[in-house]
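Design a sequence for this backbone.
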């Protein structure tokens, strides 16, 4: 016997449809009790069918998980795009800062080279003054020549150390 139909000996039903057995006072009341019982039975059957429909519940759960995954994907893409823009902005600012510093350093070096050239021109003997003036007109050429001279001196020092066994 099920819970809804089991009796406890006093003529009353127990369970979710606890109504007296045979307690109708007429055919109309009996029909009403039958309709009410059918409705309750239909609701119970729908509940049980829903619980027993494992495939349907699994599909519903999968749909929920797909929706959540889609929402997370959108959120992650948005976060990644925002992070990319932030990195791009910072990199741009760092590039501008480096460019500004390099430009200032170049101007400073050029100014110092010009002052040094003027100093040498003023202190140099007559013949050298012409060469110094030519160098002031072409500061890059003077810079390249100075770098080449420095390389020659460095190579000589290294060769001398190598011969004397300092390396």
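Sequence:
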């Amino acid at each position: 016997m099920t819970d809804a139909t089991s009796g406890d000996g006093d003529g009353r039903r127990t369970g979710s449809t606890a109504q007296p057995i045979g307690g109708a006072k007429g055919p109309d009341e009996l029909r009403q009790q039958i309709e009410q019982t059918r409705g309750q039975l239909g609701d119970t059957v729908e509940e049980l069918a829903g619980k027993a429909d494992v495939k349907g519940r699994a599909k519903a759960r999968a749909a929920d998980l797909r929706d959540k995954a889609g929402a997370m994907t959108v959120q992650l893409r948005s976060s990644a795009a925002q992070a990319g823009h932030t990195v791009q902005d910072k990199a741009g600012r760092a590039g501008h800062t480096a460019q500004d510093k390099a430009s200032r350093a170049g101007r400073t070096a050029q100014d110092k080279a010009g002052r040094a050239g003027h100093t040498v021109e003023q202190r140099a003997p007559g013949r050298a003054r012409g060469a110094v003036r030519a160098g002031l007109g072409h500061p890059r050429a003077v810079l390249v020549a100075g770098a080449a001279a420095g390389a020659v001196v460095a190579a000589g020092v290294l060769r001398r150390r190598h011969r004397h066994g300092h390396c």
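Helices lie at 27-52, 54-123, 126-137, 139-164.
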